Amino acid sequence: MSDQATTATPTSPPPAPSGPRPKVSNRGRNAVPISSSNSDTADIPEYDYFVAPGPRGYPPLTEYLDIWEVDMLKRPDETNKMEHHTSLYGSDFLIVRRGQEFQIKITFNRPYKPNEDKFAVEFVIGSSPEYSKGTYIPVFPTKERQSSWAGRVVDSSNNVVTMGITPAPDCHVGKYRLYVAVVTPYGIRRTRREKSRDVYILFNPWVAADAVFLDDEEERDECVMNEMGIIYHGAYDDVSERTWNYGQFDYGVLDACLYIMDRAEMPITNRGDPIKVARKASAMLNSRDDEGVLVGNWSGDYTYGVAPTSWTGSTEILLNYSSSKMPVCFAQCWVYAAVFNSFLRCLGIPARVVTNFYSAHDNNGNLKTDIILDENGRIDKKSTLDSIWNYHCWNECHMSRPDLPPGFGGWQAVDATPQETSDGMYRCGPASIQAIKHGQICFPFDAAFVFAEVNSDVVFYSRRRDGTLEPVKVNRAHVGRMILTKAPGLETSRDITEQYKFPEGSTEERTVMEKAEEYGCQREKSEFPEADVDLVLPSLEISVGDDFELSLEFINRSDQIRNVDAYISGSVVYYTGVSSADFLFKTPRVKIEPNSSESTVMQVRSESYMKQLVEQANLHFIVTGKVKETGQIVTAMKVVTMHNPKLSVKVSGMAKLSEEMTVTVEFTNPFSFNLEDVYVRMEGPGILPPKNKYYSLITAGSSLTWSEYFTPRRAGPTRVIASLDCPALRQVYGQESITIKP
């Protein structure tokens, strides 16, 4: 035998298996599968025998108490839905809130005898019901035997028993299957599964024991029950409004919200915790990680979807997602916030959309937005990479925070817009607003990121010839200039800036910054002597296509002449602050007499910016300058949101329940150019489902008229909202308020 080692012959790896990937199972890890789908069901046997079968099989159980009928008392005008504030939901099922009693009626084959008969109402959720996990809950009618859900006999007459059931205030939220089980000496006989007896159980902000309790009736009515919202955008000194139909009560929306949690494979056992629900939904509302609800798009090209500025409500988006099982195209921050708001309100979590004007996107946690200037004070656009969003929308939801020290419950910031990852996924929050205000940015979740959005400094650096940067000016008041939300019960805004931060320069504000620095935030601490020359850019209100004047005022507060070499740049920007194209650049030298002012006026022609204009029509002016005598840097920044033409919306008819009405949308193209590929949308809560129409061309100066018939399904105040959208003209809206009589 040879002692030479045998050399193995290399071979090709086996071919990759074809066909669908095998489903990973739980075997070897869990005794039963982890239930993570509300739509999955488990078969509950109609008979559970206590004895072994005899020669003739199991003994019959029909001679004992038998269930003939179960009335869920689920009509909108019945006590259950009225007392649980769920009568507006478009659903054929019983919808109630946890921690509060609801009633059902059970008809037996004979009168119920409390001392002899034993029965229970059973609630089951998910595919692996277990009593210990709160996914199987028997509810008993006697005080002697109770489970985590309370039960009692409210009334018993003839063969009918009215049963009162109070779900635990921390039970899982979702759709439960209901059975009625009767106990006999030989076994249990229960009703068969009937979908009509399913019960939806939601969060309950009306009950103090629920984690989402909100002890403010006006705020609660606004943040849970109101379907029609106003979302603020534009510039902080020229605020615009966008009306939105949250549609949380529309038919199919509740099931769509439960599907979102199913799609996320969120365990049923986590669905009673609003902290976990909000955090999971924050990730699921965007599609970046998990095939979630909305695809973000800031490119301006929306060929294969709906432009974010075209949407008028959440209903169409949620129903499209639940039916197609595919992400919906497209969204930007206010669409994410609006649909997230619908999700939270639908499940019973108080929620509102807030808008932060001049919102910093802090991607490195240094609390600074850097603007680089050359030696002469001119902006170096190649080196200036940071941008500040003209506005950014996120959500606040109301809940207790038992995971944080006392005092940090209440309103929490959550954000579904995919900006930065949190624990490996694109999501943000819930972050305590109180923690943000007091600099406690170490608390979960993502308090530091939201803190930076409202507190970052704008730092101007001068680049020396050797390439090093020297800070020359800090603007501590630019970011987080104003934070707005809709006022409860009113059609106006409410400024909630003070809920996020103390007044700039106050003792409390300095203390907060010191606290934030303890947790790793880095601010620019350099102090610079105040320049004796001020630069003022006035507010402007301009319509798209207008020529206008840009006036700059230089104010000299010294006793000597000052000369300023100024650099004035104007650019078309997206609302995220990202520049699209420059259309203006001037370099005037301004001489200012002592203790006086000097104005410089520039003419801006529409042809200089119209061809570069992007959606939302924002113009950004930045003026920098260097004072020749002192070397000091002066700066001013201004975002001008140009106003679009309006849609005309008119409603005619009797404005009465079940009486046919007409809505007419009209628009005239005011421009000298044609509008192509135009989409018009309209909808109205409780009266008009989402509708849309396409126009291939609206020539210059011509008009369109679109009429639709509708029959109101619900009485009360509401409105019809409409939008017009095309590549050349975004964000055109109109609305009409009406009150439907019973």
Describe this structure in words.
- It is a single chain.
- This protein has 742 residues and is mainly beta.
- The protein has four domains: 156 residues, Immunoglobulins (Immunoglobulin-like, Sandwich); 302 residues, Alpha-Beta Complex (Coagulation Factor XIII, Chain A, domain 2); 109 residues, Immunoglobulins (Immunoglobulin-like), CATH 2.60.40.10; 93 residues, Immunoglobulin-like (Sandwich), CATH 2.60.40.
- It has eleven helices and 41 strands.
- The strands form eleven sheets. Strands 1, 3, 5, 6, 9, 10 and 11 form a seven-stranded mixed beta sheet that branches.
- Helix 3 packs across helix 5.
- The N and C termini lie far apart (104 Å).
- It is an enzyme of class 2 (transferase).
- Its EC number is 2.3.2.13.
- Belongs to the transglutaminase superfamily. Transglutaminase family.
Write a brief caption for the model:
The chain is mainly β and 742 residues long. The strands form eleven sheets. Strands 1, 3, 5, 6, 9, 10 and 11 form a seven-stranded mixed beta sheet that branches.
State the share of residues found in helices, binned by percent.
10-25%
Round the mean pLDDT to the nearest integer and report it: 90
- What is the CATH C-level name of the largest domain? Alpha Beta
Query: How many structural domains in the coordinates?
Result: 4
What's the number of helices?
11
Percent in strands: 35-45%
CATH fold label of the largest domain: Coagulation Factor XIII, Chain A, domain 2
The stretches of 5 or more residues where confidence is low (pLDDT under 50) are: none
Query: Sheet with the most strands?
Result: 7 strands, mixed
CATH architecture of the largest domain: Alpha-Beta Complex
Number of E strands:
41
Helix-and-strand structural type: mainly beta
> What radius of gyration results from the CA coordinates?
31 Å
Name the CATH superfamily classification of the largest domain.
Transglutaminase-like
Query: What's the shape?
Result: elongated
- First and last CA, distance: 104 Å
